[in-house]
Write a structure and sequence with these properties.
Elements (H helix, E strand, L loop, with lengths): L11 E5 L3 H23 L6 H23 L4 E5 L1 H7 L6 E7 L7 H12 L8 E7 L4 H17 L7 H16 L24 E6 L13 E6 L10 H16 L4 E6 L3 E2 L4 H9 L9 E5 L3 E2 L5 H15 L11 E4 H4 L15 H7 L2 H8 L3 H11 L13 H6 L24 H11 L3 E4 L7 E3 L6 H19 L15 H11 L5 H17 L8 H24 L3 H30 L49 H19 L1 H6 L8 H13 L1 H6 L10 H19 L2
Parallel strand pairs: 3-4, 3-7, 4-6, 9-12, 10-13
Antiparallel strand pairs: 1-2, 5-6, 7-11, 8-13, 9-11
């Protein structure tokens, strides 16, 4: 293994990105928000109810910005030195690679194939790798595609991406199989898929390809295993988290690698050295003695729907990484197996090995059976993992039948799987939930952002699919905020650092921002119609103008610094407001119904997109594909779902207020008294309409980019009620 001598240069180094100028800007904005809040408080008795509502909204914005400032205070990341690793390492540690898929329609098999092929071709000894694919859809088509991919990999992997023609044949074969199932009856290997349903079938474990040579030759292909856990009707399977825990158990039985990589089926490897980069952190003993639980790589994308997401990673992601380490984001992450088995920092001695006290407590046979289940083979693999023993080179075929047993629906019953072991349950945001559990036990994590990006994936196009995904994320975060893993729990006595906990609080309560943002989008319109002053001339108006100007220039600079355009910045600001006032509003409804016991949260698999054309080399998706629904195209697909009702309502209300202001509705209201609103409120109404530009355009367009009549009629009715309520004294 690695030479741990502290006299040698480190395998990686921590790079700090802190900026005193940016800190000053953050504090200035914080000061302006506080000044505005103080101004409101001092004059709250002199104004109407709308003043109190504005005070509450601005209090929320102040709290949010305070959290953001704390998060961004000391950004950092790690830079690996691969040349030092190669000189120092004599025997690479093993890595198990996990890919999850759940629906062959929404997640096309060719997408899974692309991801698997990229994993099999990483620059790492093949005998130290094993790739496991979990198919929660129990699709024979997915299995067929993976079998064909394994045949192709034996040709493609040794020569990487030279065989473009062969790859196109593979694509055509998979696509042809989608509409023709004759291959299902021509091979006995598919018998396990007969009479199965995605929600009702027994466990399936298939060894697609086995690396029998085991010497690390360049012509070798890693182990490749297909699994589909047992599914039964009316049984909760915990979605992706449940699939990941089955992957952990199966891989523990077969290869039991000390490190595990998990990627989504649409997130392929873009940097062949990504595994070795992660090892630079894990094997850096002098700087971080066995305290790094996982290494998170940022999620980058080959389409143009993710500008805002990339910005969040660049600034908030690095900011959190500078505290106790980045948050696990569900894909592109390397985990240590022993940490996923519930190990705490306190369970280690000074050398990084399991302490004698922890050994007696954790490795007792009865204790392990209660924690990990009744399988003796699982218990044995857990003991080996916790003791840091290298996995023996053995024929993994012998473990197939045992692997099927640990995929049984009832295997996890009365165990600690999903509670304190593995991926944690009780939230659709299982990644954040699991991350909190790891950091609460005192572990750190590391963030590596290489150039080129380590992983590339796709984001759903702007429209209904994206709205579903945003609502799912918002609901999952709120589940974390209100469950047993809530960052509010153990605020001071757990091993998580205080600022790290603030970061989790900020992220998990994102959905709650919907309420103040929705109200603030409507307040200027209400004041125009009601003739109330929201931004009176003088100090208050000066603070508001300065705040808007500084925040706009600050966020614009953040986008342009990363290489995005002004248009990208504007569209991202628009999408953020739409997301906050629409998707997260329904996230609040979801979590409310769940907490009241009225309904349960259901995970909906979103449609994944496939590039329509390929680059000249034919071996990887082209960069920044425009699907016609991206921010750069200015198009936003709209359907009749309720997701688009709040945005349409906001636009109509502000248009009504602007129209009323100019045609003299305010003059009528003045006859009945009022504080007197004016140009400032009208300008903010115009700004709101500009921000919700996709809905404004939707009023005049037809087809999939136009607002359906059903949505428009509901929004008009709500707008009429709002106007009547606003002008009534």
């Amino acid at each position: 293994m690695a030479d741990s001598s502290s006299s040698r240069p480190p395998l990686c180094e921590r790079i700090s990105h802190k900026s005193y100028f940016l800190r000053a800007v953050d504090l200035t904005i914080l000061g302006l928000l506080f000044s505005l809040l103080l101004y409101r408080i001092q004059r709250v008795n002199e104004n109407e109810t709308v003043w109190v509502v504005a005070l509450l909204c601005e209090s929320c914005f102040l709290f949010i910005w305070l959290l953001i400032t704390c998060i961004k205070w000391s950004p950092a990341e790690y830079k690996p030195h691969l040349h030092r690793l190669d000189k120092r390492l004599h025997d690479f540690p093993s890595v198990d690679m996990f890919v999850t898929t759940a629906d062959p329609v929404r997640e096309p098999p060719i997408l899974v194939v692309n991801t698997v092929l990229s994993l099999l071709a990483v620059n790492y000894p093949a005998n130290k790798l094993a790739c496991y694919v979990s198919d929660d859809g129990c699709s024979p088509l997915t299995y067929f595609s993976l079998k064909e991919a394994s045949k192709f990999a034996k040709i493609w992997v040794p020569f990487c991406k030279k065989y473009n023609t062969e790859y196109e044949k593979l694509c055509r074969k998979v696509e042809d199989a989608t509409g023709d199932s004759h291959w299902l009856d021509s091979d006995d290997d598919f018998e396990a898929f007969s009479n199965t349903k995605p929600t009702d079938h027994s466990t399936i474990v298939k060894l697609v390809c086995e690396n029998k040579e085991g010497v690390g030759d360049e012509k070798e292909v890693p182990h490749f295993v297909y699994i589909s856990r047992e599914k039964r009707e009316n049984y909760h399977h915990h979605y992706k988290a449940g699939a990941m825990n089955f992957l952990v158990r199966v891989s523990g039985l077969m290869t039991n690698a000390p490190y595990m990589l998990n990627v989504d089926c649409d997130m392929y490897v873009n940097e062949a050295d990504v595994v070795r980069q992660a090892m630079c952190v894990f094997l850096q003993k002098p700087m971080n003695p066995n305290h790094c639980a996982f290494v998170q790589f940022p999620q980058d994308f080959y389409d143009s729907n993710a500008d805002e997401f990339i910005i969040l990673q660049s600034y908030l992601g690095r900011g959190i990484a500078g505290i106790q380490g980045p948050i696990f984001t569900g894909s592109g992450c390397f985990h240590t197996r022993k940490v996923m088995y519930g190990l705490s920092i306190d369970d280690l001695d000074d050398s990084g090995s399991l302490s004698s006290v922890a050994t007696k407590r954790m490795l007792a046979e009865g204790s392990l059976a209660r924690e990990f289940g009744s399988s003796k083979e699982i218990v044995k693999s857990v003991v080996e993992a916790l003791q840091g023993k290298s996995n023996p080179q053995q024929t993994i075929t012998n473990s197939i039948e045992i692997a099927k047993e640990v995929g049984n629906c009832h295997y996890e019953y009365q165990t600690s799987w999903g509670k304190t072991i593995g991926w944690l349950y009780d939230s659709m945001a299982d990644d954040v939930n699991t991350s909190i559990g790891i950091h609460s036990r005192g572990w750190t994590s590391s963030y590596i952002s290489p150039d080129p990006p380590a992983f590339l994936g796709c984001m759903p196009p702007m429209g209904p699919v994206a709205m579903v995904q945003w609502q799912r994320w918002g609901t999952g975060m709120l589940e974390v905020f209100f469950n047993k893993q809530s960052p509010l729990m153990g605020l001071f006595h757990q091993k998580m650092r205080f600022r790290q906990r603030l970061a989790y609080i900020s992220i998990s309560m994102w959905g709650l921002r919907s309420i103040p943002e929705l109200f603030y989008c409507l307040l200027p319109a209400y004041c125009l119609l009601h003739n109330s002053a929201l931004f009176p001339k003088g100090l208050c108006l000066g603070i508001i103008v300065t705040l808007l100007g500084m925040h706009s220039l600050y966020t614009l600079w953040e986008f342009m610094r990363v290489g995005f355009s002004v248009q990208s910045w504007y569209v991202s600001q628009s999408i953020w407001r739409i997301k906050a006032t629409s998707c997260w509003l329904f996230s609040i409804l979801d979590i409310t119904l769940k907490l009241l016991g009225i309904s349960k949260v259901v995970l909906i698999v979103t449609q994944k997109t496939i590039p329509e054309s390929r680059s000249g080399s034919g071996d990887e998706p082209p960069q920044h594909i425009d699907h016609g629904l991206s921010p750069s195209s200015g198009k936003f697909e709209i359907d009749g779902s309720l997701y688009f009702l709040p945005g349409t309502f906001i636009v109509l209300v502000n248009l009504a207020a602007i129209a009323g202001y100019w045609v003299g509705l305010q003059s009528w209201s003045c006859k009945h008294g009022g504080g007197g609103s004016g140009l400032a409120e009208a300008c903010i109404c115009v700004l709101v309409v500009i921000i919700f530009y996709p809905f404004l355009m939707g009023l005049f367009k037809k087809g999939k980019y136009g607002i359906p009549l059903s949505t428009l009629s509901k929004a008009v009715f709500l707008t009429a009620l709002f106007v009547v309520f606003s002008v009534r004294k």
